[in-house]
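Collaborator request, handled under Task 6.
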Amino acid sequence: MSIIHYIIPIQKPDIDIFLSQACAAPNVRFEDRGKGVYYFWVDKQSTKGVDITFEQENIEIRNTALSNRADFQLTNDLSKILISLSDGFILDEEDKVKSSHAPLFSASKIEEAEIAGCLLTESIFFCYNSNPEVISVAGPIRAVYFGEEFFLKRKMLSIEQLRDEIFALILRVNYGLPDGYKEGNVMTISKKTAEEKLIVKLITNKINCIIGAYDYILFPADEADGYPTVITNKILASILPEQWELVDEVTIVAPMLDEKDWNSLKDRAKLFDIGPKFITG
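Structure tokens returned to the collaborator:
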């Protein structure tokens, strides 16, 4: 679910001036994604961010499901700057002209959109996912994974309480994990066809890392057997050392281990090795 507005410019806005004014506000960040698309978010506050697309005849402003108050307030601010620079007017998705002086999202509209996004996410998981395990939600910094454990533990909450829990997890995974932790060694492996690729994470215990979702997790081969140990994210989550933390239903904070604990983890992983399946594909 996206909420889309369009600004119809009378004059073409200067993008450099727009970016400068947009980022003058505290903690506003942006990423140039190419082809006229700019992604904005409020550091430490946004759950989803805002997409601004400069098209031939209009400027698209897009908010996606699970956007929070910081995102909608940022949308209000960005649209105000664009209106000023373009001397334009605003259309909603139904091509209705909106006032250029009123914010796109009032306090009540923000509340309504927050709740709608959370209800949609819960519905997608339980009603439309035929094999429910996890669903991925893209955040400003990294994806967050919601699954059966998260929703079943919170089935007695009000929708407002569920919203707060969903947003709290997105904010934690995006901004609350340790600084300096890296993704580490990630490989893309082509299979039988050029389109078929596997994303594989190699765990080496040489850096503190954040482990996200991958097709397979690999542990390096021992000299004795010569083959890596291959497991899945789900298996890894079931054998974590006590120093590692599962922060959502996939994402793991994985500091380096001492040699004894590292060898113990590798030994546990070998008990679930699916290497032959991985090799034969």
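The cover message to the collaborator said: "The longest strand covers residues 2-8. The two ends are 35 Å apart (CA to CA). Please let us know whether this matches your experimental observations."
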